[in-house]
Write a structure and sequence with these properties.
mainly alpha
Length: about 160
Amino acid sequence: MLVLVCLLCLSVFYVDLRRRQVYLWQIISLFILCLLRSIEVEGGILFTTFMAKFGWLAFLFASVFLYAKYVRRLNLSDAMGTGDWMMLVAVSPLFDATLYILAMTSGFVFSILAGFAISQYQKKETIPLAGLIGVWLIPILAFEGKCQYFIWSFLLS
């Protein structure tokens, strides 16, 4: 199932890079696969984990809204597309709350850096955030056990 998640993340990257949009079927399929994997690995979705992820997404939403409105003078939809938000929600069942927040935060940094590199070749104003986060998740999923060990050993020391 992990291979299907990775392949779907690559397809999101390809479509987002080419068109700067993602298809709804991709996001829904990714969400269903992530839910199935979460149930398979953890036996269900814990309410506290869900609330921590929701809190982080709410903080992120408020930050992007304030940045777009007061700094860039943009609408929220111009700053971050619907597909980007849906991608963040779709992959949320894959990780526990700590790893999810760290993976998405580092994914944003990766997306900004990769977006600058892509903008040198493609003259588009937007960054393919959903696709780049999908690509970023592939190595994190491959080394998920080691990532969790590193995070918990770092937090407990």
